[in-house]
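Q: How would the structure tokens look for this protein?
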Amino acid sequence: MSERIAVALESARKKTFATALDWPGWSRSGKTDEAAIEALLAYVPRYAPVARDAGLELPTSIDADVVERADGGSGTEFGVPSRIHDADTRPVDAAEADRLARIVGAAWLAFDRVAADAPAELRKGPRGGGRDRDKMVGHVIESDWYYARELGLKARQPKPDDRKAVEALRAEVLGVLREPSDGSPLAGRKWTARYAARRIAWHALDHAWEMQDRSE
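A: Here is the predicted structure in token form.
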């Protein structure tokens, strides 16, 4: 028997994101709803090690249970799962907050491992685009700093080669995510705790997997 996971679809004119709502970072896109779900399920083998690093286990057989649909926008078309779903406003108790934080930490660990093994120059895309390793690392760290501001943090932007500062910023972010929440936006802004966890984890994993693919 397959275990069904709750999935939300965020659909724009040319792109749809399928997101596993209870597994931060596990979100993939496709040109149609069906293609996005297919891509999501195809990434089970790549997401499973992240879950294990967080002290969790994915079911061995998984089907998608679409529980929510929402219209996407320009962010969706650009390639970002940017819609805050109704499910993202659910309260988060202490146990679930710890679980979400552990998954985000595991996503950062996956990114760091891939970056450590990747060549400095990555294979270019069909049109010659794409950041090389060091620029991608810098981009992820800079984005995490912007994400931290969405959580109400006011840390100084770390330099990519300042590991102490990077780890300090991550620790502050995880500290916020470990706090129980009633599901309302954090720090009076827009992101809820659940959305923050899945957006931050998605960005780290999306680039980790891109770096892996372009290292081959």
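The mean pLDDT is 95.

Residues 94-117 form the longest helix (24 residues).

Upvote if useful.
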